[in-house]
């Protein structure tokens, strides 16, 4: 999706228009499934849920996608995808703040998660500040899918820093989205309906923002049978499906688990970006990606240890409950009789006491 979107943006498509069309197609794809499959199970809409939906669509698609596309024009698809590797760390930090993730500084797994977070931040800084020498690959020589001025700006350190900050901001918006999505699913568990509401609300917001920023330039809204239409259709269909899958995974496994698989896209996009878009690859970025991967999997190792410890605690509690429930009535009775015998052995054998007991 990133490669096709970058290809369309290089051909002059406005990112505001791309986001608006993308959400319109996603709404058209997901709405029939929501209407048919969740007709009976859809919860009642309240003002609180409506407000959450509007905030969700504000974070993603409106802010996240527009910031990401703008940043990608400064840096390139492979660099933007590599920067997205900070998503699991940001998601972990925000999940910790909002109570979805537990951290105990005295435990080894919590220490490794914090250490991995620091390593990831170091890798991001290396990618941003140290470019390194260019790797001369045979399929990138003499080819460029970028206009000359855009190619020059991509190698400019000031533009690289600007693009990096925009992509980091988009990552923050995406993390806000998945945390708020996890919160919303607690009160509105209809995932198909929630996906449709997010896409439709995002479409309205994207159209309003697009009309404001592209005022007086009506030509940008025209789409022909070319890569711009392909990008809108492809991104729209995948967006609708992705929002639904994200909701399912977030509800079952949590936001940190969802974000953990994002780095897998870096390798694919870097390879395709080099082949399709003839993007240049630099040594500093490769080293930065490796460091980010190391830090990421240190974080995931710590999270996995947390899950195992939690499962062990749950299993111990379940076994204790089972042992208590399997205690036989005879054993209880025997214990009671023994207690009675013990008590009776110390009771005085005075007849008045016996008569009093009989009277009672």
TrEMBL record:
The chain crosses the membrane at residues 16-37, 49-70, 82-100, 112-130, 165-185, 192-213, 225-245, 257-276, 282-302. GO terms for molecular function: transmembrane transporter activity. It is a multi-pass membrane protein. Keywords: Membrane, Transmembrane, Transmembrane helix. Residues 2-128, 162-300 form the EamA domain. Residues 312-335 are annotated as: Disordered. InterPro entries: EamA_dom (IPR000620), WAT1-related (IPR030184). It is found in: Membrane. The keyword Membrane applies. GO terms for cellular component: membrane. Belongs to the drug/metabolite transporter (DMT) superfamily. Plant drug/metabolite exporter (P-DME) (TC 2.A.7.4) family. This is WAT1-related protein.
């Amino acid at each position: 999706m990133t490669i096709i979107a970058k290809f369309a943006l290089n051909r002059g498509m406005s990112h505001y228009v791309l986001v608006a069309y993308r959400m319109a197609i996603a709404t058209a794809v997901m709405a029939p499934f929501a209407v048919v499959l969740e007709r009976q199970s859809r919860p009642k809409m309240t003002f609180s849920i409506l407000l959450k939906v509007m905030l969700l669509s504000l974070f993603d698609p409106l802010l996240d996608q527009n910031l990401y596309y703008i940043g990608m024009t400064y840096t390139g698809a492979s660099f933007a995808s590599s920067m997205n590797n900070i998503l699991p760390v940001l998601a972990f930090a925000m999940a910790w703040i909002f109570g979805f993730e537990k951290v105990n500084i005295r435990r080894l797994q919590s220490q490794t998660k914090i250490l991995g977070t620091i390593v990831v931040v170091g890798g991001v800084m290396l990618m941003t500040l140290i470019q390194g020498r260019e790797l001369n690959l045979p399929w990138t020589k003499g080819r460029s899918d970028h206009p000359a001025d855009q190619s020059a700006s991509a190698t400019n350190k000031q533009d690289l820093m600007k693009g990096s900050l925009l992509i980091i901001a988009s990552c923050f918006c995406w993390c806000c989205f998945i945390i708020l999505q996890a919160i919303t699913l607690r009160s509105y568990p209809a995932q198909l309906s929630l996906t449709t509401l997010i896409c439709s609300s995002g479409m309205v917001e994207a159209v309003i923002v697009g009309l404001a920023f592209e005022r007086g330039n009506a030509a940008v809204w025209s789409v022909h049978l070319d890569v711009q239409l392909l990008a809108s259709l492809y991104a729209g269909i995948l967006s609708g499906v992705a929002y639904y899958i994200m909701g399912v995974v977030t509800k079952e496994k949590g936001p940190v688990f969802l974000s953990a698989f994002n780095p897998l896209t870096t390798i694919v996009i870097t390879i395709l970006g080099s082949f399709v878009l003839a993007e240049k690859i630099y040594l500093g970025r490769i080293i930065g990606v490796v460091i980010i991967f190391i830090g990421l999997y240190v974080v995931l190792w710590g999270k996995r240890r947390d899950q195992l410890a939690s499962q062990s605690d749950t299993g111990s509690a379940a076994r204790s409950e089972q042992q208590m429930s399997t205690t036989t009535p005879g054993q209880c009775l025997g214990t009671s009789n023994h207690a009675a015998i013990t008590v009776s052995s110390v009771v005085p054998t005075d007849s008045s006491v016996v008569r009093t007991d009989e009277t009672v």
